[in-house]
Amino acid sequence: MRALILSDIHANLEALEAVVADAQTCGGFDVIWCLGDTVGYGPDPGPCIDRIREFDLVAVAGNHDHAAIGLIDASDFNESAKIAANWTANQLDHEQKEFLASLPLVAVQDTFTLVHGSLRAPIEEYLLDRNSAMGTLAILETQYCLVGHSHIPFRCLEIDGDVDFYDFTEDELIEMTNNRQIVNPGGVGQPRDRNPRSSYAIYDSTENNLVRHRVDYDILKTQRKMVAADLPSRLIERLGHGL
Ligand code: ZN
């Protein structure tokens, strides 16, 4: 079984299509594991939801998914995220909203637990340091955990009761060891590691390995749609910088 691991699509259909096409040419996939924030920020929230639902799909909710359907209050968001969240809410039809409302906060697949932010605060906490990693490992019931939310790719290994963060290097085949591990595949629709190309990962259960790829997409096309939708310029510009 091969799982296409996607996080933070953020309503960027051009990025999503580029990732799906790239994954299909790089060995294909049987299922999508989606780590949340399918909507928010970008110009195509409804089409992104419909597209991932065309595949076998296991998905969890992100904070922007919940903001789009009023499950959390967007007033905690920064100004441009708030504007985008309100805009997004008006773009979704009933079925798309029902889909977002149906998403669990945590899902378990094989040896993996899927969550947007962290296990101790699934849609709030950014897992980026020792403290947050230890907090998740303390309650992790599977061998591995997949997270998104920060849009920063990394691997975090538990070694002798402590943790070590590693680069999740592009195109490097990672053999999954017995160490418990937390992995972030990076962001599909709004990468924030100063690389504007879409980031995603593939898990192969037969080989028990993981690989991360990056792919170019038509950033200008997404940006033009955002201009047409009158979305905040800060959100439009950041796509070009990978921030
Ligand atoms: Zn996000």
CATH topology: Purple Acid Phosphatase, chain A, domain 2
Average pLDDT confidence is 96
Shape: globular
Do you know the CATH architecture? 4-Layer Sandwich
Helix content: 25-40%
Radius of gyration: 17 Å
CATH level-4 homologous superfamily: Metallo-dependent phosphatases
Question: Which small compounds were modeled alongside the protein?
Answer: zinc ion
What portion of residues belong to β-strands? 15-25%
- How many angstroms separate the termini? 33 Å
Written overview of the protein:
With 243 residues, the protein is an alpha/beta fold. The chain has one domain: Purple Acid Phosphatase, chain A, domain 2. It is 30% helix and 22% strand. The chain has a six-stranded mixed sheet. Helix 7 (219-228) packs antiparallel against helix 8. The model has no long low-confidence stretch (mean pLDDT 96). The structure holds zinc ion (ZN).
